[in-house]
Amino acid sequence: MERDTVFWKIADGRLPPPECAKTLGIKFLDVDAACGRIEVAFEAKADFLNLAGHVQGGFLAAMLDDTMGPALVATLDPGEFAPTVNLNVQFHRPARVGPLKGVGRVLLRGREVCQLAGELTQDGRVVATGTATAVIRKIGVENSWSAATKAAALSP
After folding, report:
1. By the 8 A CB rule, do 93 and 119 touch?
2. Distance in angstroms (rounded) separating the CA atoms of residues 90 and 88
3. CB atoms within 10 A of CB 34
4. Total structural domains in the chain?
């Protein structure tokens, strides 16, 4: 496994994470690419609160996406990426300002389609769980899906 990809440079602190991940306060705690498992930390800020004083669900969903996605991305070859095409989130209890921990797992890694699962905890209690489907793609390579999408957009 190549540890000089953009993901590993971010996980190792050689590159900063994307701005969206920085907003969530992401920190990589443990990455086991061989097992398709990752642990990350997030920091919920007061800016994330809804009118009830709890972390708004969209931020929790983004945290889950940034937990499950990297569990898969850590397994990819250079030149590959894996966008999330479906994200399902279940909210179990309100989250507060402060640290949260995410654990993500690759449940099924096919040649292209992958199934992921994750959970967010705060103070040892489950706040939200999720599942996702991601599709492995080559960066900069035309694939049949993108070609079909472009063709459909051009037709009257």
Report:
1. no
2. 7
3. 9
4. 1
Q: Which residue has the tokens 């945290």?
A: 63
Amino acid occupying residue 100: L
Name residue 84's amino acid.
T
pLDDT in tens, 32-64: 999 999 999 999 999 999 999 999 999 999 999
CATH number of the domain within which 92 lies: 3.10.129.10
Residue found by looking up tokens 């990589």 in the block: 28
Q: Specify the DSSP element, H or E, that contains 48.
A: none
With 0.70 as the threshold, say if the pTM is over it.
yes
Q: Write out the two tokens for 31.
A: 């990455």
The owner of tokens 């599942």 is 131
Direct distance between the N- and C-terminal alpha carbons of the chain, in angstroms, rounded to an integer: 45
Asked whether residue 1 is domain-assigned, the answer is: no
- Looking at 12-135, list the stretches that DSSP marks H as alpha helix, in order from N- to C-terminal side: 19-23, 57-73
How many Å apart are CA 93 and CA 79, to the nearest integer?
Answer: 39
